[in-house]
Specification:
355 residues; 434 Repressor (Amino-terminal Domain); four-stranded mixed β-sheet; 16 helices
């Protein structure tokens, strides 16, 4: 168990055995022995390893061990196996802490995910995908306005969301998996908020419609359609742009982006998809985007990133109800006891939580 956790932590930090060995004053061969289970470190070396890897010592002895189910990545072609393994290690750590927390409660106050009743047994067209997005909003009582906090919404429905900072180059946008029958959606912490939201909605679509599509429907296209329809419903876009337009100001797309949390280019495509603008106008808009290099980074202020606070709220709730000790709470949050006490007194409001 110790060796596996050391290997995972080292990999997540992007360190070679030699790199880690140099930081703690050992040989690379000794790190190899630790990771292979041939030797265990002394207490002082253990403290040095934890410090070098920015971890609490308790991490190495956490009793919860999770096996991740089949992982479906939304990645670019240049994503290396090393990068994917770094993400997997980071996700494993965060998911293990979730299940460790849940095991502390007599009855964990988070519902199990259940497939919404509005998901049909067989989806035979993209128009039915559009309808599914509207029906899900109705079933989850969201109306047709902006979804303020998508992560909070998903977690309240029993879907675990992990924001991973393991890979910074944008080679992986997101992924989905299961652990102990619980669905998990993972999104990069290094991309803009609108891109995070689209990725999460896209992965939600995979969770909902996989196995429910007719053979002639491409699942990726269906998930893209669902994501745009769920984040920016047709009724809302018609209200703001009208039913038919011969031209659109770029400022309109910018304002839509910051109202609904979906990129300007996705708003333009959505307008074309719904017949508000024609193919020719959409093409002109995209040419302008390409000319100004807005496909890589859109103009103006970025849409704020999504944040996950549900886990921390549950830890402090468990602390208040004496379900966990101070030490256990600090371990789950990945901070020191001193920092935990400062946070509880509101003396430290921006602690660097590991979740």
């Amino acid at each position: 168990m110790f060796g596996e956790r050391l290997l995972r932590a080292r990999s997540s930090n992007g360190l070679s055995m030699k790199d880690l060995a140099n930081q703690v004053g050992l040989s690379a061969n000794m790190i190899k022995k630790y990771e292979h289970g041939d030797s265990l470190p002394s207490s002082d070396i253990l403290l040095k390893l934890a410090k070098a890897l920015n971890l609490r010592v308790e991490y190495f002895f956490r009793p919860v061990k999770i096996s991740l189910g089949q992982i479906e990545y939304r990645k670019k072609a240049n994503a290396s196996q090393k990068q994917l393994q770094c993400i997997k290690n980071d996700v494993l750590d965060q998911v293990e802490r979730w299940f460790d927390l849940s095991n502390q409660w007599p009855v964990f106050p988070v519902p199990n995910f259940s497939l919404p009743t509005c998901v049909p047994n067989l989806i035979q067209s993209l128009d039915e995908i559009e309808q599914l997005a509207d029906n899900l909003r109705q079933e989850w009582q969201l109306g047709f306005d902006h979804i303020t906090d998508l992560i909070d919404l998903l977690e309240s429905r029993g879907i675990l969301v992990v924001v991973s900072n393991a890979v910074a180059d944008g080679s992986v946008d997101g992924l989905q998996m299961h652990a102990n029958h619980k669905p998990i959606l993972v999104v990069s912490g290094h991309v803009s908020g609108d891109r995070q939201r689209f990725t999460l909605a896209h992965e939600l679509a995979h969770l909902l419609i996989h196995g429910h599509l007719a053979e002639n429907i491409d699942e990726e296209k269906a998930c893209h359609r669902f994501a745009s329809a769920f984040l920016l419903p047709a009724i809302a876009l018609h209200q703001r742009l009208g039913n038919r337009r011969h031209n659109i100001e770029l400022q309109e797309l910018y304002l839509l982006k910051h109202e609904f949390g979906i990129s300007m280019s996705a708003c333009a495509y959505r307008a074309k998809e719904l017949g508000i603008i024609n193919e020719s106008l959409h093409k002109r808009i995209m040419i302008k985007f390409s000319k100004n290099k807005w496909r890589q980074q859109e103009p103006g202020e970025a849409y704020p990133q999504e944040k996950t606070t549900f886990f921390r709220q549950l830890v402090f709730r468990a602390l208040a109800e004496e379900i966990v000790s101070d030490s256990k709470a600090a371990e789950l949050l990945g901070i020191s006891l001193i920092e935990l006490r400062q946070v509880r007194k509101l003396e430290l409001l921006n602690a660097a939580f590991n979740q």
